[in-house]
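User: I want to check something. If I give you two sequences, will you return the structure for each one separately, not as a complex?

Assistant: Yes, each is folded on its own. Here is the first sequence with its structure:
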Amino acid sequence: MGQELSCLSSHEHDLFSAVQHGDTETVRTMVERDSALLHQTTPYDRQSLLHIAAANGQIGILSMLLDQSLYPDLLNRRRQTPLMLAAMRGKIFCVKKLLDAGANVLKFDSLNGRTCLHYAAYHGHADCLQAILSSAKSSHVAASWGYARFVNVRDGRGATPLHLAARQRRPDCVHILLDSGALVCASTDEYGHPGSTPLHLAARGGSLDCVRELLAWGADRLQRDNSGRIPYSVAMTHMHKVCAALLDPSSTEPLVWPSPLKFISELNQDAKVLLERALMQANKERESRILEGKAISVSPSHSEAGEDSDILEANDSNLCTICFEQVCTIQVQNCSHQLCAHCTLSLCCHNKPNPNTASLTPPVCPFCRGPIARLTVAEFGRSNDPDHDVNDISSSKLRRTRRSRNLSEGSCSFRGLSSSVGSLGKHGGFGSGRIAVDDDDLTEKP
């Protein structure tokens, strides 16, 4: 951009330089003196004032320009909008401001045929990605174009945002996209090797975290690209041995996010986080056995750091009365029975579809056999008795009462589910749980 500015007249150079460096007073003075300057662009790339402000995160100047009724979807030479540049640079406040001003998330550039969602996913700005998805869900895009279609929008080479995030080693973006309905087994057209799935691209990039996320959401280890390669072959070709060990078809199948959980009407977000963490933890235990068997060591990933920071200390008051190993972290809202995340996953993964209707029935509480309509995070240390004294020595009696209540209600269910939990670490997968639902990027090589 500096070379462009050097080609401008002194007056224009001062204006664009002031926008780039956030000199709000200079910009305001110059614009008030000559309103035509609002529509000035750089000579070669045709960057407008909005483009420069958005790319450099100058939220004050951006707000001032938008207040002057400037069109938020101005296009530069590559048909990039200010929103695309803000998403590419990770300028979250500018992204939110442009979205609030009505910026169109369905604009495609002429460089690679990508939207702002592609830019955010490719460059790994999870906060920008989430903001764009939230805006699309509440805007006309969801009603006219379709939210699921937007999440899986393809660029000019057939790559979805999930493909780009997996290839560029962006596990946080991969998780957000999968949670928003991205198709885990979608194939590319020309991006990478034709026919590549996100798992192929994660294997090529060697991102263990991306591979973990994709496998947990049901990515197929045996799906082949147009060259006939499975992800395991791609990982071996690029010497990513740890990823290859997990992608080896002969290795133990990973556990998959069970689809019955998607049919619970109100799955509390905090409860979902606990269930996902339990799923990833169970898979990591399998990984350790796989890697030990293949004599491969792996250093802890950044996502594992501090994952036990909020784990509650197990004691008689909060120990799960199904497995007697994990802490109760999940509560069935309508009956208030509590169980651990691992047992909740086991409960849902063993709930098979009706063979006649091919539809899933909602899971039921193992204690009272009531339908589970809502799961929330278990609450600890609270009493329904207003006269309860927290210092009362009868707290041990309260613990025994809660445990006996869970054990006494639905003992047959307890015994049946207890055995299924024991087999959770032995099964190859969750059965029916699979889900089917830039400038530095000018020359992407396959």
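And separately, the second sequence with its own structure:
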Amino acid sequence: MGCSKQNYIFLNTTFEDLEIHVDDVLPRQARSPKTLTGYGSLPRCLSTFPKGGKPSDYDPVLLSYFEDIICSSSTLVDNAHYNPYRYLILPMALESDGLYHATLAIAANTLCLSDSRYRLPALEHHHCALVYLKEILGHKTWGEKELDEILGLVLMLCWFDISDNSRPSWVTHLSGFQDLIRTRQERPGRSFHSQTLSGFFNRYFAFHLVLARTAFRVDIPNYKLPTSTDFMIESPDTIDPYMGFSQSLLLLIDRVTELAWSKEDEQINISPSTVHTLKKDLEDIQQRLPSEQIDPTTECASIAEANRLGALLLLHETCSPKSASANKPSLPIFDQEEKNQFVKRILSLIMGKKANMMRTAALPLWPLFLAGCCARGDEERVIVLRLFEELNDIRRFGNISPAKEVIEMVWRRRDLLADEGKRQSVDTKLKKDPLRGARFTWEHAMVMLGDWKLSLT
């Protein structure tokens, strides 16, 4: 497999070829030709591979898998308006060597969750994508097309690391992504295609950064969230089929994280009125379905509601004196029973409609993770474990297993602290524990596991 500049030719790869190679990893409801027929925007027989060098035998299947399976399940609505991976990124991958290799790397890494034979192709394509990025970053100047290509490539490398058990380097790519977006915004006179890409790049950055800040301390210099107009696809209250909830909710979650990280490692005087306003906004927000036709089986509204409940649970944790920092006075806004009800409502909502919720990458992993970390009863814990097992069985998302490990670490630590016979000795150790600065219990768990940087997107 070569990493040099390539020309592309077309190769016939039939649906039957694809089914033979990936049947074991397809969701049950995606295995019939009837279901898959509606997936592709390219003709069923089209695929590409580099003409130069020595392409891997896997390459045609990898590109077909990305187009047929990954693109089809990347959003809740698969059309030109709502699916940026099929209609923006994939065409770029057929023109850019770097994006081509990054695309195949992601496909191979996803297939590797079911078949270890794909691990080597994943690493090879990932290496070629990095080599290409290094080369293009070394250019003295970048035109509009080159800058779009760089941004697309960094986004795909970020995605690859998330799919590879949430490797911490995905945060490094995200930080570089912000710098590139800033550079891009300083370039006037962009084409319509470039402006369309800009909207998706801003959505991707905002979505990943906000949810990252709900999980751990993010050290991105000059952090600035794009305004809603930079990444809006319809109205602010419309559910974004890529995120699974609205831009309005994303901005409310960002306000909660600002509250959480407003001052680190010291006592914070949180105004009850500020918390009350945030809570009321989260309770009153109305998230609307996208205006275009949407398949009712996608459970779009239910996924958005699970995320809203997750935001309320996060606000409770932010104001709780039992957070990892444990330096805040308690607030009369929440009580423990209300928190328990948020956990139960999230789990009940997901359990009731899990079959359709889990079909796409917009599945409510973030609220499930928060509910899992906050679950105290054995019944709730059993449900959480069952849901994570079912998610793992899909073998499509590489950040599921580490999320489950973090939850289990939170449970172990909480159970240890609840042991009355060990409470005194444990509390003494915690006073000397350098991890006490962790803002949330799950962040503390991630540090204990090796400074993980979990992605919940």
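Because they were folded independently, the notes below concern the second chain alone. Strands lie at 8-12, 46-50, 239-240, 245-246. The radius of gyration is 22 Å.
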